[in-house]
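[09:14] KT: can someone run the structure on this one? pasting the chain below
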Amino acid sequence: MFKLKFNSVTFLCLLPVASALADSTPILPCRSADIRLHTDDRNGLYDGMSQGGMSLVLYNAGEAPCMLPPRPALSFSDAEHRPLTAERRTARGMYPGPALPPVIVPAGEALQILLRWVASDAFDGGHCIRPAFVSLALDGGALSAPFNRTMCAVKGQTGYYSQSLTGTP
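[09:31] RB: done, C-alpha cells below
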C-alpha cells in the first residue's frame, strides 16, 4: 500500500481548476427558437464566371452560448416548400473525413457558413434547379431563409453545392 503526499502548493494549484469545473455549465445544442437565419450574398462577391455563392448567417439571439454541428445538413425547397433533391458535393479524398467537434456560438454573436455552386448550365447534359428556400434543422424545428438562386449539376448527379465548415467561410 502506498500513501499519496500532497503539500499546500498542490492544493492551491488544484483549487482554481476544481472551482472552474464546478462553475461551468454544459453548453447545449442550439435551438431553433434562439437562432436567427438569413442569407448574405456579399453584394455578389462570390458570383461570376458561372459561379455563385452566399453566406448563411446564424445569429444566436438566445441568452447562452450553444453548439452547432460543424457542417450541418441543409435542405432546399421550392416556393410551396416542397423538398428539392440537392446534395452537398463532397470533396475528393478521405471520406467521411476527420471527426469534427461542434462549434460554439456565443450569445449575441453570429457565425457564417459559405455556400458555393455552379450558377449556369455549364455542363453537357447537366441540369439546374432554382430553390426558393434553404433550410437548416435544429432542436425545436427547422429554420428557413429565402434562397432564389439557380444551382446546376453534372448530368445524373445531385451534388449541387459545396459548404464550408460552420464559422469558416
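[09:33] KT: thanks! DSSP finds one helix and 13 strands in the chain.
[09:34] RB: yep, looked fine to me
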